[in-house]
Design goal:
The complex is a heterodimer of chains A (508) and B (367). Chain A is an alpha/beta fold. Chain A is built from 18 helices and 22 strands. In chain A, the strands form five sheets. Chain A has a six-stranded mixed sheet, with helices on both faces. In chain A, strands 16-19-20-13-21-22 form a six-stranded mixed sheet, with helices on both faces. In chain A, helix 6 (173-188) links the parallel strand 7 (161-165) and strand 8 (192-197). In chain A, helix 14 runs parallel beside helix 15 (434-449). Chain B has a domain at 65-309: ABC transporter involved in vitamin B12 uptake, BtuC. Chain B is built from 13 helices and no strands. In chain B, helix 3 packs parallel to helix 7. Classes of the chains: A alpha/beta (508), B mainly alpha (367). The A-B interface holds A 14-18, 54-55, 57, 71-72, 215-216, 304, 306, 325-327, 330-331, 336, 338, 343-350, 354, 358-359, 361-362, 366-367, 370-372, 393-394, 397, 401 and B 1, 5-7, 9-14, 222, 226-229, 231-232, 234-235, 238-239, 241-249, 364-366.
Chain lengths: 508, 367
């Protein structure tokens, strides 16, 4: 069968830096094709070329047997290429209908023929089993629903090929499931879809074929049926991931953290934590599994002192820290990798070196009486950039300019390098690429070996399983149960994450 | 891919983007001033005045004799100080619109102290007046600070309202408690000559208050960018959530920031009283607080930028009088030009991202 899209030997240079070099891509009708690669591998550049945002220096694009000469995204839309960006391009205060027809000139003069348009749009949505409420305001919709609006918008513009840029990064597991069902239906109905991602399990779950990019070049063109995650990883990062080695034996140190009947009622009067009892020893990793939004964030913040427990007691060693300030707790050698690096972990407009001293700026050697000692600060920054291989144009670059993985490395470097007694790590690898995930996991394991007690809160079960010694499951603010890593069964944990008690979950 | 080559390329690209940023942040104010003068000239044509003639007076009269030249710095002095006040709060994420009121508070305190200790040696009288003005300005700033830090009320509204409280307080003070001995005008007696600020250049009004202002430009820069204290304040301004997570007390820093901001504006009251008027009178130095905000916007909220922008405003203010004498244009036309500059700078800053996108597109080979 003749492919619907053929990109032949595309090369795109920025200066002399080759973002894409001799990249070819073929997508067939009715196929979900994955474009796999790490951040910076050239996926986005290639797709921007296809969507008319960049002009390639070399190569040509054939779409439905026509040679394309794209000058803007409008040209791409006109021939039937739709793109759904990671950050949605919707106007929140407008209704779904208005967003879908926006800019298409469907209104006659000032009048919009509401009924006719509604019918047209609903026909498209129903064809692929998407529920959509045309008269709701976009700002009232959940993220998953907004994404549906984007898909309908692209289809309504006559897209025959849909590019989706990391569509699952913002979705809950359930929404992801739903999205994949929709995509499958669309593919079966003759649509072609390009899925940009760096998550292997998604590729395996939903795609037909995959093109792997690394450093701007194609490193693999693989049929999903004949491959496995290991092979894909190899193509993606150019080597095999070395599994994180772990020694469960060293977890019997002194007790570092203890929570006794800790409850927390938030500002809205909701009891987000209910009678939590946990303990954690030096050199031990306790994983907290659970679906996002079940009290994980509050649990971390209660321990770190960002909010104070409404009742119950928290001990660090033999000292009570329940009502202590954030600064006191930091000074008691507690590291904290927060869930949201943009909101909490970094000051994005500060430089890399400033961010690296966010918690020590007031202490020696960085301070000389009232002034900073910039020699110390700079050498500290250089040191950390090398030690944690933070990729940046220099220590004075704003943190905002770094990629997600490298931003996270700044946070990890700052929190781990001091060898804290206790490390609270919340979603330490959310939204970073595989290479950085591997690196961050190794750093956490290294801290464990040096005797740090680690509370790992994550929604990624694979992460919990590979790092933890013990696993506790949180559901609606209570700890459903605790199991040893040796007893790890994904099905058991999954049931516990839905609130089913341990005994029952283990039996079924 | 060669890693070294890759890195150096990255660096090259960044330094290019960086220069472009810098160029734009200097270019926008300059272009704004030029366009504002152009628009002003249309206005002048309407009232049948040759714009070139008028602008000749507006700009070159300042350099015609030492007195006029010194006057530029005299006019700029309080604007530098209120501009620094706005900048300081702005860098910590706060809008202090109360520079005017804080200056009045400082002036009242400076006059009060000046009347009491003015007969003493200048080495005692002047520092005491300065200290009083700093304290009074700080008090006028810390009250909105506490209201913001503790109760979360908007510092913008409170500082604006405090302007009026201070303004009418001045009216009251010169009307009743400190009215001059003769009781003729609503103004205070002259402060003792020991509290007069010495002149830098003889036969001009340029006093050492200008040096104080210039020193404070440097000090504010040092505080904000070279000390842990300023680091804390800027962190709160740029990302309060991140600052809180790092153990910084946000409320405390908001209060401190507004107190210092108020103190800086208070110093403007000191330089105006002890350097120029030597007494408190109703409606003295009106709008200097707001000119400071203009200078801060024009100067990109950086201390050095404020300094340069204040001198520019000084040129316009001094030149306005010369223009009025020379071609009979009302001096107020300068206020219109000043307002146009502000609008254009704000518009330019809004457009800056678009200009950068446009340049980037060009680089990518489109269009």
């Amino acid at each position: 069968m003749e492919p619907i899209l053929k990109m032949v030997s595309i090369s795109k240079y920025f200066g002399t830096f080759a973002a894409n070099e001799d990249v070819s891509l073929e997508v067939h009708k009715g196929e979900i094709h994955s474009l796999l690669g790490e951040n910076g591998a050239g996926k986005s550049t290639l797709m921007n070329v296809l969507y008319g945002l960049y002009k390639p220096e070399k190569g040509e694009i054939l779409f439905m047997d026509n040679k394309l000469n794209l000058n803007s995204s409008k040209d791409a839309i006109d021939v039937g290429i739709g793109m759904i960006h990671q950050h949605f391009m919707l106007i929140p205060v407008h209704t779904v209908l208005e967003n879908v027809i926006m800019g298409m000139g469907k209104e006659k003069g000032f009048i919009i023929n509401q009924e006719k348009l509604e019918k047209e749009i609903l026909d498209i949505a129903n064809k692929y089993g998407m529920k959509i409420s045309l008269n709701s305001k976009v700002s009232d919709l959940s993220v998953g629903e907004q994404q549906r609006v984007e898909i309908v918008k692209a289809l309504y513009r006559g897209a025959k090929l849909l590019i989706m840029d990391e569509p699952t990064a913002v979705l809950t597991p359930q929404e992801t499931e739903e999205l994949f069902t929709t995509l499958r239906k669309m593919a079966d109905g003759g649509m072609s879809i390009i899925l940009i991602t760096h998550k292997l399990n998604e590729v395996m779950a939903v795609c037909d074929n995959v093109t792997v990019l690394r450093d701007g070049k194609v490193t693999g063109r693989i049929d999903i049926k004949s491959t496995n995650e290991l092979e894909l990883t190899k193509a993606m990062i150019g080597r095999e991931l070395s599994p994180v080695s772990k020694d469960n034996a060293c977890c019997k140190g002194e007790k570092v953290l203890e929570l006794k009947d800790v409850s927390y009622v938030d500002g809205g009067g909701v009891k987000t934590l209910k009678d939590i009892n946990l303990h954690l020893c030096a050199g031990e990793v306790l994983g907290i599994a659970g679906v996002d939004g079940n009290g994980q964030k509050e649990l971390a913040e209660v321990i770190a002192g960002l909010v104070h427990a409404t009742s119950g007691k928290i001990f660090l060693g033999d000292q009570e820290i329940t009502q202590k300030s954030i600064l006191d707790i930091i000074n008691m050698s507690v590291g904290y990798i927060p869930e949201d690096r943009h909101k909490r972990g970094l000051v994005l407009d500060f430089s890399v070196s400033e961010n690296l001293i966010m918690k020590d700026y007031c202490k020696s050697p960085f301070r000389k009486k009232v002034f900073f000692d910039f020699n110390e600060i700079n050498s500290h920054a250089e040191n950390m950039i090398n030690k944690y291989s933070i990729k940046t144009t220099g220590r004075n670059a704003e943190a905002r300019k770094l990629s997600g993985g490298n931003q996270q490395k700044i946070v990890v470097a700052r929190e781990i390098d001091k060898q804290p007694r206790l490390l609270i790590a919340v979603q330490p690898t959310r939204g970073v690429d595989i290479g950085a995930i591997e690196f961050i996991h190794k750093q956490i394991m290294k801290a464990k070996e040096q005797g740090t007690a680690i509370l790992l809160i994550s929604t990624e079960l694979s992460e919990i399983n590979s790092l933890s010694d013990r696993i506790a499951v949180i559901y609606k603010g209570t700890i459903v149960g605790e199991i040893d890593q040796s007893q790890f069964e994904e099905s058991t944990i999954g049931l516990m994450m839905a609130g089913i008690p341990k005994e029952k979950a283990m039996k079924s | 891919m060669n890693k070294v080559a890759d890195d150096s390329l990255d660096k090259k690209a960044t330094s290019k983007a960086f220069n472009r940023d810098k160029l734009l942040s200097i270019g926008v104010p300059i272009v704004s001033v030029l366009i504002a003068l152009l628009l002003g000239s249309i206005l002048l044509i309407f009232i049948k005045v040759n714009p070139l003639e008028a602008y000749k007076h507006l700009i070159f009269a300042n350099f015609s004799n030492p007195y006029n030249l010194a006057e530029v710095f005299v006019k700029a002095t309080p604007i530098i100080l209120t501009g620094l006040a706005f900048t300081f709060a702005f860098r910590t994420g706060l809008f202090n619109i109360g520079g005017e009121g804080q200056m009045f508070a400082g002036a009242i305190a400076a006059v009060f102290v000046g009347l009491k200790v003015g007969h003493l040696s200048p080495f005692i009288a002047i520092p005491l007046c300065l200290l009083a003005a700093i304290l009074a300005g700080a008090v006028w700033g810390i009250i909105p600070g506490i209201l913001k830090g503790v109760f979360g009320s908007s510092e913008i509204i409170v500082t604006i309202m405090f302007n009026y409280v201070a303004l009418y307080l001045v009216s009251y003070v010169v009307d009743k408690p400190l009215r001059e001995a003769s009781g003729f005008y609503p103004q205070t007696d002259l402060i003792g000559s020991g509290a007069f600020l010495p002149y830098i250049i003889p036969k001009t009004r340029l006093h050492i208050g200008f040096i104080v202002a210039a020193l404070l430009v440097f000090i504010v820069y040092l505080i904000l960018w070279k000390t842990p204290f300023g680091f804390r304040l800027r962190a709160v301004g740029l990302n309060p959530d991140g600052a809180e997570y790092s153990g910084i007390n946000i409320r405390k820093n908001i209060i401190i920031s507004l107190a210092i901001s108020g103190a800086l504006a208070g110093v403007a009251g000191f330089t105006e009283i002890n350097g120029i008027h030597h007494r408190l009178l109703d409606n003295f130095s009106r709008d200097v607080g707001f000119d400071g905000i203009a200078a801060a916007l024009l100067g990109g909220a950086s201390p050095v930028g404020v300094f340069v922008a204040s001198l520019l405003l000084g040129v316009l203010k001094t030149g306005a009088n010369a223009m009025q004498r020379g071609v009979g244009v009302p001096a107020n036309i300068v206020n219109i030009i000043q307002a146009l500059i502000i609008i254009l700078v704000l518009a330019g800053n809004m457009l800056k991202p678009k200009i950068i996108v446009m340049l980037n597109r060009k680089e990518r080979g489109l269009e």
